Every structure is written in structure tokens, then in C-alpha cells.
Amino acid sequence: MGLEIILEQNKVEHSYTSRSEAKQDGWTSQAPSNPSAKYDDDTFMWSYISIGSDYMWKKNPDPADAEVKDDEVKDDEVKDDEVKVNKEVQISQRMAEMFDVFRVFDREGTNLIKKLKEEDREIIKSRAIGRIRDELGGNLEKVEVDMSTVDDTFVQYLIHYMVVDKNMDPFVIDYIPTAVYKLSYELVEARGLEKVLLEQGFTTNSEKVYIQYTDGDNFKLIGGPGAKNQAAYEYNRKTGQPVSGPEEPAKSPEPQQSEEPEKRPEDEMGIRNKQHIKLLNDIYMQASDYGIEKVKDLIQKHFDGRQKEAIKSMNNEGYVLLRPFNLDMYEVADVKAKYEDEFKDFDEFKMYRPKTSGVSVEERASSLSELSKIQNITKRQCKELIEQYYEIGKTGDVDISDEERKNAARQIYRCRRQHKFGGMFDFAKINDKLDEMGSTRWAQDNESGRFMINWNNKTVGTGDDVIELK
């Protein structure tokens, strides 16, 4: 009686008129060993039909197989979405780094990048990414591997934002061209004395791209030997300054009517010396902005042995050339004052290391909070966050909220995944600090344990004070 009830439950209505017709649809006369067997979800494994006095059987699909297929489809969809998201994150990350790569100055030498707040930077990135997406029909995957489209679009929107939204007057973009970063611009030839100096071989390793204003707030980027004069002429017109004199725009070279004066050796040496001094200062500024790794070949080539030994000595004391964002959290060493003879040709030469004392809990927590909120954090910003968190974790006895601790630890977790640290210079000791943060030494310390980051479990804290970094 029980079997009849079970069989009634998995009986299927049909319209077959013969057994042969049912066989064509997969039904069989061979009865299963356990007609009442069920799958994990409590559905019957077998269905049956009755044709006359005969039973025929057919196995039902396993619902788990259907779920797997659905999951595979969903996984593929998620992967596609992740690729799209990852590409946008990659582009956004590159743009965040370019605020450090490209320095923008007005004619008074003010670095306008430093005047931009975090919300300004996010607006610029958002507009530039939106423009790139529109130009590529919504498909960011079409962005070339060399990212040249990203770089040029970013700089155009950076300058436009400065001019239109912030009412600034940018004049020149300064950066070191590499295989990674190289801007496109209109070439302007030199003339007169400027041409003579160039022909003598006086160049620097940094590249300057000038902003030439056209009409209203419109502009174009120009570079090359004659760009500065041409940009200065239009800059003066825009800002209401006199446009006569040496700042006239460059014109097509005309045939020389008189022979150039003979160059005296002492004059030539003086020019070369000034050019070399400028080059040294340019290298120092680039190292301050991007880290010594970016310009180590230039330092090796142009700094003398005593200057390199002085830098190495300061490095051994924990000082680095990379300038931090929050100077209040760092000791500043005046290397020029300490090694006066070696660095007499420099306008300044400073190096930095984290303060281990003299900083209040409120100041340290405020610095952590600010760095933890950055959406696309750069390697340079990560370094500063890790150093500040490390100083707090070493002490441990710090009154910050669980939310602040969680946000800082989560941002450091991202930094560790997104950036490679190490090397010999600015980032040399960051990996050691990260290892210590996740060590049993911190885990077993009553105070430092609150700040211990478990990299595998993605948590911060120990014992009853564990917070998931989600």
C-alpha cells in the first residue's frame, strides 16, 4: 500500500498511445531498483507512466546539476562584470598616480596640484573616465595597453578643471617622460638665442609641456624649444599682463643676417654649470614627488660620490627622499644644512622619516582617517598610511574607535594587494612593517593585538576583539 501511494505521487500524465512511442522520448520498461529514491532536495529521482497494464520509467534531471549550470552562467556574468570593474579601477588608479607624476605650475612657480582637494581629484577622474567611456562606445576594454589615451585625456581634463572650475592660471606641466608616461602635444620650434643654446646641447631629463590659451577658456598643449615664449605671450594676454618684449610668440625662423658671435670658453662653461645645477634640482624635485626609484639612474649618472654617500647615510638613519602628504607626522632633515659643501648647488635638499614621538593620538587618528577614505589610493599614500598605522600598533594603547581601526586596516589590506613594496630606497621597509602587523608577536601582545591584521582571514584584532574587514 505504501509503495502504491509513493508511485501515485511521481506518476506523470501523458498522451502516448503505444509503448514504442514512449520509448522514443526516453521511457523504458526496465523498472529502477528503488522507484521511490529521491534527490537531495526531496524531489523524486524517477517518474513513471502507465500504458494499459504496463509501467514505463524515466529518470528525472538532478536539480543540483541545473543549479551548477546556473551558477556557471552567473559566474561568467560576474567575471565579465569584474573585468569591466577592474578595468575602470585600473584606469582610476593610474589617474590617481598621475596627480603625483604631473606637476602643474603657474607663472609664479606655484604647484597648483597641491591646491586640489580629494574631492577635486575625484571629479577630474570621473569626468576623464566618462569622456573615455563615451569615445569608446561604453567599452573601457578598448583602452590600449600603453594607456596613452588615458594620459592625454586626464591631463586635458585636469587643466580644464583648474581653469574653469577653480579659476587658476596653469602655465606649464612638468614631468619626466618614460616608457610609462608620455604626453602628446603640438611641437613649436625655437628661434634666436633659445635656438643657439639648444644647438649647444643644453637639455634636461624632465620635460615641460606648456599651456597655450586660445580663446576664452580654451587651450592646447604645446612643447618643444619655442613653446615657452609662445605660451607666455598668450598667458600674458589672458591674465592682462604686458605682451611686448621677449615674450612675443615664436615665428617661423628667418635667415640670419649676421654671423653669430664667437663663443668664449668661460661663457660656455658658465652656461653649462647653470644648466647642470638646474638639472640637479630637477632630479631632486622628481625624487621628492615620485620616490628615488623613479630617478635612481639619473642620480647615479649626475650626482657625485659624496652626494650619493650622504643620501645613503641618511637612508640608513631611516630618512627617505619621498615627500609625505602630511608633514606634521614626519621628521624633516635638512640635508643641505648637514652636508653644506656636498649640496651647495641645491636650492634645498630634505629627507623624511615618520615621527615616533611628539604626535598626539588625535593627530595620528586624524591622519589615518583621512588616508583611509581615499577610494583609489596610490602607492605613495599607502606608504604613509602603513607607517602611521604601524606607529599606532606598536604602542597599542591608543583610544580610537572600532570603526576607525577597521577602516584603516581594510585600506592597508587593499594596499598590500594592489601595490608591490620593497627595493632599496623609499619603500624598502614597508614589507617589514606589513609582516610585523600580521605577526604572532603583535597577536600575543595585549595592546598591539587590537591592531594585528590577519591577512588570511581578512580580520583585524585578536581574541574577543576581532573585526571582519568587509
Termini separation comes to 56 Å
> How many DSSP helices?
16
Uncertain stretches: 1-6, 67-85, 190-204, 243-260, 263-269
Radius of gyration: 34 Å
Major β-sheet strand ordering: 3-4-6-7-5
Multimeric state: single chain
Overall 3D geometry? elongated
Topology:
Elements (H helix, E strand, L loop, with lengths): L1 H8 L9 H5 L22 E6 L2 E6 L3 H39 L1 E3 L12 H18 L12 H18 L6 E4 L10 E2 L4 H8 L7 E7 L5 E5 L3 H13 L25 H26 L1 H11 L2 H12 L13 E5 H4 L11 E5 L6 H12 L6 H17 L6 H17 L11 H8 L2 H4 L9 E2 L4 E2 L6 E2 L2
Parallel strand pairs: 5-7
Antiparallel strand pairs: 1-2, 3-4, 4-6, 6-7, 8-9, 10-11, 11-12
Brief synopsis:
This protein is α+β, with helices and mostly antiparallel strands and 470 residues long. The chain is built from 16 helices and twelve strands.
Describe this structure as you would to a colleague.
- With 470 residues, the protein is an alpha+beta fold.
- The protein folds into three domains: 2-60, no CATH class; 68-247, no CATH class; 361-468, no CATH class.
- The chain has 16 helices and twelve strands.
- A five-stranded mixed β-sheet has the order 3-4-6-7-5, sandwiched between helices. Strands 10-11-12 form a three-stranded antiparallel β-sheet, covered by helices on one side.
- Strand 1 (46-51) and strand 2 (54-59) form a beta hairpin.
- Helix 3 packs across helix 4.
- The longest helix has 39 residues, at 63-101.
- Mean pLDDT is 77; it is low at 1-6, 67-85, 190-204, 243-260 and 263-269.
Output the keywords.
470 residues, alpha+beta, 3 domains, three-stranded antiparallel β-sheet, 16 helices, 12 strands
